[in-house]
Design a protein that fits this description.
- The protein has helices at 29-40, 46-56, 62-70, 77-82, 173-186, 198-207, 259-267, 279-298, 306-314, 323-333, 378-385, 391-395, 411-422, 449-458, 495-502; strands at residues 2-3, 87-94, 105-114, 119-124, 130-133, 141-145, 192-197, 211-215, 219-221, 248-250, 253-257, 317-319, 341-345, 352-355, 369-372, 399-404, 425-426, 430-431, 439-442, 463-466, 489-493.
- By secondary structure, the protein is of the alpha/beta class.
- The strands form 6 sheets. Strands 12-7-2-3-4-13 form a 6-stranded mixed sheet. Strands 16, 17, 18, 19, 20 and 21 form a 6-stranded mixed sheet that branches. A 3-stranded mixed sheet has the order 1-6-5, with no helix packed on it.
- A hairpin with a 7-residue loop joins strand 5 and strand 6 (141-145).
- The two termini are 21 Å apart.
Length: 505
């Protein structure tokens, strides 16, 4: 049985229900992992290092660590990476003690590591997604925004009565509930989780003496949150031009930023510049910052900062990984170029739609929420299972176009966005008269076999038909729609795929 409104028993103001009202945070997965290894080898007093590692890396026995280095336990992260098996980590960024709702996760990221191909997928899941949270022993399902899953074990009585399930109690209960909730919608089974608040982010950058960044273009944001339930420039509506001296501003170029400035770059969501206000723009800045942290932490001078770095992370960094796992992740990620990290972000332009003001299709009235287009999440699971495309398939560089031959008005745009994020080269899609089934038209004469096979699998066994461009003066039963390509591979998405996309049985 499902019970809507998980947070109804919570009488305090909940800024998480309104768009942009909560400070955003960033998951420091790569940076934090690197720093843990740096501290372990930095010549700091042994008792201090082991105290730190016991807190953040679950290390209680140094002898056990040595044993695990020789042969990591079967199924552990270190063992999987050694044997070429996929590793999935849930990375969470939460507000921390500086916020009125400290346990809400504003950054939710799936990190999927494929040692066989030497690539990493970083996929962002929207915090405002309205989902089922199955945490209580009474057997009922409660619904709330996804960012509440990490908060529930910390403050369960604010949400619903009764005890939590055993798996969601204790030190790692919040992380495990987040894993279970995100795993249910993506189809991913997580090995471990890591959670960090943005105070740790800021303090780490400051402890390192700042980091070097490069901005391709400017960033101006008049709607950036402050630490007092408001904004840096209160009263300036989203989308309005920033008056002189208001908000936050970064010019194009190279410079060194401190912790607060790095946090501003990573958190900004409502920039005046359209390219900076997108999920892609924000992900690009976050990747830049993580790379800069990793580079600065690798410098010899950073070893002298070990005590400050431990202080920055110890109180605000939580994970169920042990040091063997952390070291294995570092050894794998340290040798990868930035190009090996692939980004994907679920937004209201692909797998979800947003609602506010009126009653949402999946949430309460007057609340900003994101609702999945497919409430069964089967399409989400298809997307996540295909997100890391084989490099040989992408290497074919097949020209692609998606054609919408269903009752949906924007299926071609949404599906095109997904496939572009995967690395395919697509021209803009077009509409076509409705057809019942999806067909892949091959105008290449079989030039792109791996791409064709991938498309067949992604589109649920779609039929492939050899095709030739229509000739002038020659009658043909197939007439392309205006703007439809007659080269490369063209996928005409029929009603069958739309039903899968939207979760219609």
């Amino acid at each position: 049985m499902s019970t809507p409104g998980l947070g109804r028993l919570n009488t305090r103001p909940r800024r998480s229900r309104y768009r942009g009202r909560r400070a955003r945070s960033v998951a420091l997965v790569i940076g934090a992992v690197f720093l843990c290894l740096l501290l372990a080898a930095g010549g700091v007093a042994a008792y201090r290092v082991y105290g730190f590692l016991g807190k953040v890396a679950n290390l209680s026995n140094p002898i056990q660590l040595i044993q695990r280095q020789v042969e990591p336990p079967a199924g552990s992260i270190a063992w999987k990476l050694k044997h070429g098996q996929r590793v999935n980590i849930l990375a969470l960024g939460y507000g921390g003690p500086e916020n009125d709702a400290p346990w809400l996760t504003d950054s939710i990221m799936v990190v999927s590591i494929d040692p066989a191909s030497g690539r990493i997928l970083e996929a962002s899941i929207p915090r405002d997604l309205y989902v089922r949270i199955d945490a209580w022993q009474d057997g009922r399902d409660y619904t709330e925004k996804l960012n509440a899953a990490f908060e529930v074990p910390h403050e369960s009585r604010l949400f619903a009565p009764g005890p939590l399930k055993a798996d969601f109690q204790g030190k790692d209960g919040a992380g495990r509930l987040s894993e279970a909730t995100v795993g249910r919608i993506t189809g991913i089974t997580f090995d471990k989780y890591v959670a960090v608040d943005f105070k740790a982010f800021r303090d780490v950058v400051d402890a390192l003496g700042g980091i070097e960044v490069h901005m391709d273009g400017p960033l101006d944001d008049c709607h950036y949150p402050d630490y007092h339930d408001g904004y840096v420039n209160h009263g300036v509506p989203i989308g309005w031009r920033c008056p002189p001296g208001a908000g936050i501003h970064f010019q194009a170029g190279d410079y060194v930023v401190n912790g607060e400035q790095a946090l501003e770059l990573a958190r900004s969501r409502d920039a005046t510049q359209a390219e900076q206000a997108t999920d892609f723009g924000r992900a690009k800045r976050q990747q830049m910052i993580l790379s800069a942290v990793k580079k600065k932490a690798a410098s010899i001078s950073a070893v002298t900062k070990a005590p400050q770095l431990m202080d920055a992370l110890q109180a605000n960094f939580v994970t169920d990984m042990d040091l063997t796992d952390i070291k294995a992740l570092y050894d794998f990620a340290a040798k990868l170029p930035d190009s090996a990290i692939h980004h994907f972000a679920v937004t209201d332009e692909d797998l979800a739609v947003n609602f506010t003001g009126t009653r949402a299709s999946c949430g309460p009235s007057g609340v900003y929420v994101l609702c999945p287009i497919d409430p069964t999440y089967r399409m989400w699971q298809t997307v996540f299972s295909h997100a890391l495309v084989d490099t040989r398939t992408l290497g074919e560089q097949a020209p692609l176009q998606l054609v919408n031959a269903s009752s949906s008005y924007d299926l071609q745009a949404r599906a095109t966005k997904v496939l572009r994020a995967f690395g395919f080269q697509l021209t803009d899609g077009v509409r076509h008269s409705a057809t019942p089934r999806t067909v892949i038209y091959d105008y290449s004469g079989g030039k792109y076999p791996q791409t064709t096979a991938w498309l067949q699998d992604f589109f649920g066994g779609a039929q492939v038909e050899p095709a030739t461009p229509p000739s002038p003066g020659v009658r043909s039963t197939f007439v392309p729609s205006p703007g439809e390509k007659t080269e490369g591979l063209v996928v005409v998405m029929g009603t069958d795929f739309y039903r899968h996309w939207s979760g219609i049985a």
